UniProtKB/TrEMBL annotation:
Presence of keyword Membrane: yes
Domain Cation-transporting P-type ATPase N-terminal: 9-85
Protein name: Cation-transporting P-type ATPase N-terminal domain-containing protein
NCBIfam families for this protein: ATPase_P-type
């Protein structure tokens, strides 16, 4: 059993004993030795919540096998494979070539192999995707840092490395990563709504309610805490563990309810009675599951600094699958409509083929039923399944997902981490951007560049000798003490590097000002430690200032305060004038200082900060001091923060990022309105906005302060393998090639698309219908007169088991060539004539294009029985390529047709996704038009489907 100081670790110690122990270790913290860290991890655990075990590969394989289409094809494959070995004597059967006779079993086996390929690819893709998301989550968690004291020094460590016994520095804005006990606090208030649901901020202190819990937000103040529980032993870890168990229980309950519902349905079908109880239970279980999922998602969203739990992962994953962006929803709706149409056509195809076979065999030829006819019926069924597989346009939603995933990966290389794929699409539709100033438009590396001390404005920073000694001492001590001790300036990693600013950047600028005066602020802090503070008025959005009260050496107290100049000036009654003489700070002097110093600094884009102080003395008080008989009522902030003595005003520069003006110009050129939101002085905001290009000369603009802004808001048919190969080219490979097209600067010249804009614009519809017309004319021409023009044997009227012909091979090859060359046209969708521009900048596109072309050559020349093709001569290949290149010339003619003269009814998908109208059926028409007589073979149905998923997903996995 693990022990501490000879006592079982789980027995622990009291809060009083803990505080007494930490009084001696509060400054030093843990030693940081490897042995101590390992001992604490072994005893108390790590600050990591183990994630839910991932699904095994076999589990994913089993889930992939549940696809209805796969089940149908598995049955069809087994039937086809069995019939291939059943060959009863039949004198009416056509005489087959030896090659065809000995390869009848290939069709059924090919389907089974294709099913295996599809299942393995699907399972591998899901497995890889889960690993990627887990890796991303680990990366996000690893980037979260927290300040702790180890070996007497403040250091930033990953939240996963926090140990029990660590002294952690807590400050405004933190999300606590572990449970702890406060040993020192300054006006600390915590939001515990993630645990209790109460929105009121809870005041915490070393003496009153000292326990702080993981997953809660620090809304105000600062302090130090000793970590008492981490990982699964912390409050957040306990909740996540229970939540994960609840999810597992709910899933088991749902499975149980489903079984009961099935039994009830069987009884209902037998007895005619309805059992509403089972349905009610199933509904309740489903509702409970949704409740748990929503809670898990909430917990994860609020727990950015807390390691993600298993339940959160499951819940978030479930919720994420239900979310779809606007474009994905529209495309899914369109794909479903096309799928319905394809299903109808598939069913009609099977019915018509069976009726045709029955009439011809039993009515016209008057033949009796034979067992061999079962093979024909199975082939007709597989034809229908083939049509169904080809008709479902899985590439539509996939194209968007693939494009977004590719974009996210490209942006990650630019250090732009996108956690939700649909955010890319949302930003593409944005018409306005409201940006924070500090750290977004500016570098967030602040430096004091101007100062006003003792009625002297310095645009070059002074030295301590330039300032009266007593004023200089007050300024350096006031800044050093009245700043969060978590704010520091550290030396660069390499000689010559700029100092590293840690913590609040405004305070770092002031500390840099103190260093510039030649004073070491850390020496002052070592002398006046945080535990000597009498009271701290922490910064918040209401105060816009910070105050610290410390005891004076000769008795009494001194209040140091700093904050926005316009706030501090109103509370000042005195100021140090020329040569450091104390003067009354009259209203006229305040207005003059604002007019001549503060406003010019603000107009230069500087953030102005004033530093002031006030003394509370027990004896005789000077003019700017306050006599006290006892300790003042520090809760009476209004009376404490008055009659201050102004020490200085400094102007802090936060330079605009060099890339910002050009980026804003691009946004404005693209029709996006950029607005800046900041808490700075209105003159500072105007200056920065002008430097960024948000405000331009001679432009109408509006600058609103918060109160005015809030007030205004309140006021206002071919061969099966050939068909599926075409499906691969037109659907998935085209999606992969076109979805990875690089964005061009011309993209910023168009206006954003609204949510209700049509999915298919008139320009796109013009191209679709135009190319469809060209391809239909060519295909029908080759079908009915191609054998005469090319002097080849006609393939029309062939029997079901007939071998491949050059006639239909040319038709198939021509269609693929037209599709391939039309992919080049599809790179430009806004009417651009130069479709070749930028072609070589996308290696994925031309690699896929060349791969498809080479694969097509092998399929035509060497496919034979497997692909139902017959080798073509060079002249025949040139004719196919000629018709393919014709799509490029035809595309230029289509571009010449003015889009504005086309009726608006040609645009599809207008409105919200749920209002989407019936989708077009162009895909089925194209495939049906290739060959209405040639019947598909069954051997390649799922082989191309497997290639489809493989080719589509490999790009996302490999990048």
């Amino acid at each position: 059993m693990a022990t501490i100081d000879g006592r079982p670790a789980q027995y622990g110690i009291s809060l009083k004993q803990l505080r007494e122990l930490m009084e001696h270790r509060g400054r030093e913290g843990l030693s940081g030795s490897t042995a101590d860290e390992e001992h604490r991890r072994e005893t108390f655990g790590s600050n990591v919540i183990p994630p839910k075990p991932p699904k095994t590969f076999l589990t994913l394989v089993w889930e992939a096998l549940q696809d209805v289409t796969l089940i149908i094809l598995e049955v069809a494959a087994l039937v086809s494979l069995g019939l291939s070995f059943y060959k009863p004597a039949d004198e009416d059967a056509p005489v087959l070539q030896e090659e065809e006779e000995h390869h009848g079993w290939i069709e059924g086996l090919a389907i089974l192999i294709s099913v295996i390929v599809v299942v393995i690819v699907t399972a591998f893709n899901d497995y890889s995707k889960e690993r990627q998301f887990r890796g991303l989550q680990n990366r996000i968690e690893g980037e979260h840092k927290f300040s702790v004291i180890r070996g007497g020094e403040v250091c930033q460590i990953s939240v996963g490395d926090i140990l029990v016994g660590d002294i952690a520095q807590v400050k405004y804005g933190d999300l606590l990563p572990a449970d702890g006990c406060l040993i020192q606090s300054n006006d600390l208030k915590v939001d515990e709504s993630s645990l209790t649901g109460e929105s009121d901020h809870v005041k915490k202190g070393a003496d009153v309610d000292p326990m702080v819990l993981s997953g809660t937000h620090v809304m105000e103040g600062s302090g130090k805490m000793v970590v008492t529980a981490v990982g699964v032993n912390s409050q957040a870890g306990i909740i996540f563990t229970l939540l994960g168990a609840a999810v597992d229980e709910q899933e088991a309950e749902i499975k149980k309810m489903k079984k009961e519902a099935k039994k009830a349905n069987k009884q209902k079908s037998l007895t005619g009675e309805s059992d509403g109880r089972a349905q009610t239970k199933g509904t309740q279980a489903q509702n409970q599951r949704q409740t748990v999922s929503s809670e898990g998602t909430k917990s994860e969203s609020e727990g950015n600094h807390v390691p993600q739990s298993s339940s959160t992962s499951a819940a978030a994953e479930t919720g994420h699958k239900k979310e779809k962006s606007v474009l994905q929803a529209k495309l899914t709706k369109l794909a479903i409509q096309i799928g319905y149409a394809g299903s109808t056509i598939a069913v009609l195809t099977v019915i018509i083929l069976i009726i045709q076979f029955c009439i011809k065999t039993f009515v016209i030829d008057e033949k009796p039923w034979k067992n061999t006819y079962a093979n024909n019926l199975v082939k007709h069924l597989i034809i229908g399944v083939t049509v169904l597989v080809v008709a479902v346009p899985e590439g539509l939603p996939l194209a968007v997902t693939l494009s977004l995933a590719y974009s996210v990966k490209k942006m990650m290389k630019d250090n732009n981490l996108v956690r939700h794929l649909d955010a890319c699409e949302t930003m593409g539709n944005a018409t306005a951007i409201c940006s924070d100033k500090t750290g977004t438009l500016t570098t967030n590396r602040m430096t004091v560049v101007q100062s006003y001390i003792c009625e002297k404005l310095c645009k070059v920073l002074p030295t301590l000798s330039d300032i009266p000694q007593h004023v200089g001492n007050l300024i350096t001590m006031g800044i050093s003490v009245n700043s969060a001790y978590t704010s520091n300036i550290m030396s660069g990693h390499n000689p010559g590097d700029l100092p590293i600013q840690v913590g609040n950047k405004t305070e770092c600028a002031l500390l840099g000002f103190v260093q510039g005066l030649g004073v070491k602020y850390q020496s002052i802090r070592d002398e006046i430690t945080e535990d000597k503070f009498t009271r701290v008025y922490t910064f918040n959005s209401v105060r816009k200032s910070m105050g610290t009260v410390i005891p004076r050496p000769n008795g009494g107290y001194r209040l140091y305060t700093k904050g926005a100049s316009e706030i501090i000036m109103k509370k000042c009654a005195f100021i140090y004038g020329h040569e450091g003489n104390l003067e009354k700070f009259t209203r006229d002097m305040q207005e003059r200082l604002i007019r001549e110093v503060i406003e010019p600094m603000a107009c230069d884009g500087l953030r102005t900060i004033s530093v002031a102080y006030r003394d509370f003395v027990p004896g005789k008080a000077a003019i700017n001091e306050v006599h006290i008989d006892g300790e003042p009522n520090w809760d009476d902030e209004e009376n404490i923060m008055t009659n201050l003595t102004c020490l200085c005003v400094v102007g802090i520069e936060d330079p605009v990022r060099p890339e910002v003006p050009d980026a804003i110009r691009k946004c404005q050129r693209a029709g996006i309105t950029v607005r800046m939101v900041t808490g700075d002085n209105i003159n500072t905001a105007r200056s920065i906005a002008s430097k960024c290009g948000i405000l331009r000369p001679n432009d109408d603009f509006l600058i609103l302060e918060g109160k005015e802004f809030n007030r205004r808001i309140r006021d206002s048919n071919g061969d099966a393998v050939q068909m599926l190969w075409v499906n691969l080219i037109m659907d998935t490979l085209a999606s992969l090639a076109l979805a990875t097209e690089f964005p061009t600067p011309d993209l910023l010249l168009r206006k954003p698309y609204g949510r209700t804009k049509p999915l298919i614009s008139r320009t796109m519809m013009k191209n679709i219908l135009g190319q469809a017309l060209y391809q239909l004319v060519i295909i029908f021409g080759l079908l009915f007169v191609g054998d005469l023009i090319l002097d080849i044997e006609s393939g029309r009227g062939q029997e079901l088991n007939a071998g491949p012909t050059q006639h239909f091979t040319i038709i198939f090859n021509t269609f693929v060539m037209m599709t391939l060359f039309n992919e080049i046209n599809a790179r430009k969708i806004h009417g651009q004539r130069n479709v070749i521009e930028g072609l070589l900048t996308n290696p994925i596109f031309y690699t896929i294009w060349i791969f498809t072309m080479i694969s097509q050559v092998f399929i035509i020349q060497y496919g034979k029985m497997a692909f139902s093709t017959k080798a073509l001569s060079l002249d025949q290949w040139l004719w196919c390529i000629f018709f393919g290149i014709g799509t490029l010339v035809w595309g230029q003619l289509i571009t010449s047709v003015p889009t504005r003269k086309l009726p608006k009814i040609l645009s599809w998908g207008r409105g919200h996704p749920e209002e989407y109208t019936d989708a077009m059926n162009l895909g089925e028409e194209r495939f049906d038009s290739i060959d209405s007589d040639k019947k598909p073979r069954a051997g390649q149905i799922l082989w191309i489907r497997g290639l489809t998923r493989l080719q589509t997903q490999v790009s996302v996995i490999s990048k």
